[in-house]
Amino acid sequence: MSDTRRRVKVYTLNEDRQWDDRGTGHVSSTFVERLKGISLLVRAESDGSLLLESKISPNTAYQKQQDTLIVWSEADNYDLALSFQEKAGCDEIWEKICQVQGKDPALDITQDPIDESEEERFEEIPETSHLVELPPCELSRLEEIADLVTSVLSSPIRREKLALALMSEGYIKKLLGLFRVCEDLDNREGLHHLYEIVRGVLFLNKAALFEVMFSDDCIMDVVGCLEYDPALVQPKRHREFLTKTAKFKEVIPITDSELRQKIHQTYRVQYIQDIILPTPSVFEENFLSTLTSFIFFNKVEIVSMLQEDEKFLTEVFAQLTDEATEDSKRRELVNFVKEFCAFSQTLQPQNRDAFFKTLANLGILPALEIVMGMDDLQVRAAATDIFSYLVEFSPSMVREFVMQEPQQTDDDVLLINVVIKQMICDSDPELGGAVQLMGLLRTLIDPENMLASTNKTEKTEFLSFFYKYCMHVLTAPLLANTAHDKISKDLQEGSTKINPVCPDNFQTAQLLALILELLTFCVEHHTYHIKTYIMNKDLLRRVLVLMNSKHTFLALCALRFMRRIIGLKDEYYNRYIIKGNLFEPVINALLDNGTRYNLLNSATIELFEFIKVEDVKSLIAHIVDNFYKALESIEYVQTFKGLKGRYEQEKDRQSQRLNRYRRDARSMDEDEELLFNDDDDDEESEAVEKSRMEEDFADSYGKYMEAKKGAANGANGANNNGKAAVSPPASQAVTPNNSSASSVKTVVLPATPVVKTAMVGLVDYPDDEDEEEEEEEEEEEQSPRKRPRLSS
């Protein structure tokens, strides 16, 4: 029994004036030699570690609030609170504190907090004036009372004394009695004075006064006083709203009367703070900090009481998932769970952990799977908010549930697929819900929050699951709007639309942009899985169809997707891009954009600048070979000339390498020539030279014919024209296999100078070079010339 009585939570007030939970333990008051005085000690119930060691100082002001709270300040900006499980334990420690300070335990505050400046300012006040003297509580003295309350707000010491006076004489209830009299008499002047008085009492910021003012028999009169603001021509009707408009809905009857009272009180006090009182910025900072704390601890208590009532929550989830439950009833149940989760945000991490585990054990995720698929928009919106609380708290918990779902069920009923379909089918023109759901999906598939320490296989297993069962649902709208058969059909019919392929509907374009944003995230974080998916589905080609969209933001999303792929500098991706000629739609978009200097222009230029700076050789060769003629006119940036320069440098390096092999083969002939030139005189040189050339010719001619025969055989297998011209490996131009994916024709630019690899190691003869030049000229005349524009 003593353990329960002494069980407490330790709170500290942070810089944002929010209470942080420091842990749960058991409190005791003992003499500590090191601190040389009686001290409060709190040891954690989990491991016995010391959570709090605080000496009871004779000069510290301790306050008792709500029968189970003791609050005090140990430094200028360090407030502490002990929240007791039982009132008896709070009273016991309070008596000990009052005993050390020599105070009466009947009071809720041990002494007046006075700082040095206040002592100096009010040192002329006589010692006998312990309390502010209040005028008699009469109608004729209301103006005098209002002036007194207003005048003390600037002085901390006088605020404390006024608060004590109001408490000791039961003054609050007398004032509220006068309010009822003034309202019956329609005494507007008296009502205006009472407004000033009640507002001033609230700004005294004292929990003991709040306990009286917010009790069941007083709170509605307090709200009534606050209706008669002198600045308003007509009084507000706050009481009418609270009693008639605002209805307390019990989705499941609450049998605990204390819990019901606490819920009512919290709602009304929150209404006073949020609706009735002016914004805090108008007044001194933290003027209503105690009111905020009052609401905070009330919410913590409500969540704890509901969480402990297992029968209540079990019944909630049973009705939520019951097919026989009426739609209106289910809507109320979902809204209750949503508000319950919102209240849980006041809990500290360890308590919130226990809260969500309780919900998980009760079946919150299977219930969400059902309600998120319903037609009722309000139910789906509330279910989405609940799902967001769960994902933000523990993505791993949601992932674990998803992977445990029976694999034999239809893919459509999987929780993640339900979420994806809700995102795709969002009826909001601005797609507010879809944006929220996309953020939640990104959290779920983010490898950064997949903890390897707890489950080393979570990342692999979940991503494999997602790409197998869910990715096709996510990409379905994208593939449907960029389908090949749709493109061909539209082109055959000669549609007069601006763009028959890309969606002109703004909402559809927004949805595709969201999907592309998620896919771009996958490219960055899921290297293996997304690469396989892109290759198998030819996804990049389909995405680049959207470069033709009239919505520039969608074209930019498609370009960003390609930029992320190229940014990986993965040769698998590079070969895929080259083989599919996937730069063509990007360059077409750049040329169609013309001279407009906009984001699309800058983003496209940046893509090619990246390729140039990073010297991605395969892509540089592909771009220059196929598109340079169309791009060379763009001179306001040096990007494309730089690409050409990189290309030429690489070609020169390859030529030098080939020439080095050629020189090695002819080094013997050059040595013989030098020998004859040194030994023979002018008369003998012609005969010897002629003899040497005849011998060399016979020898070289045999080698030449043998090499030519081998080259011809090799060329016949590769080229029907029998030409053995091979371009350097890095500059090979690849013709796309599937040109039907684009509405423009692919035009091949003039080929770069070629190197005759069949001649490597042979002596060059002028006649042979002439024949080669003639063959090249004939081939160029036969091949079509490439036009600068890439459209037909």
Automatic annotation (TrEMBL):
Residues 711-725 have a biased composition (Low complexity). It comes from the Eukaryota. Residues 5-101 form the PP4R3 EVH1-like domain. Coiled coil: none annotated. Residues 669-695, 711-792 are annotated as: Disordered. Pfam families: EVH1_PP4R3 (PF22972), PP4R3 (PF04802). GO terms for cellular component: nucleus. Residues 669-686, 765-781 have a biased composition (Acidic residues). Residues 729-745 have a biased composition (Polar residues). Residues 144-649 form the Serine/threonine-protein phosphatase 4 regulatory subunit 3-like central domain. Belongs to the SMEK family. Regulatory subunit of serine/threonine-protein phosphatase 4. This is Serine/threonine-protein phosphatase 4 regulatory subunit 3.
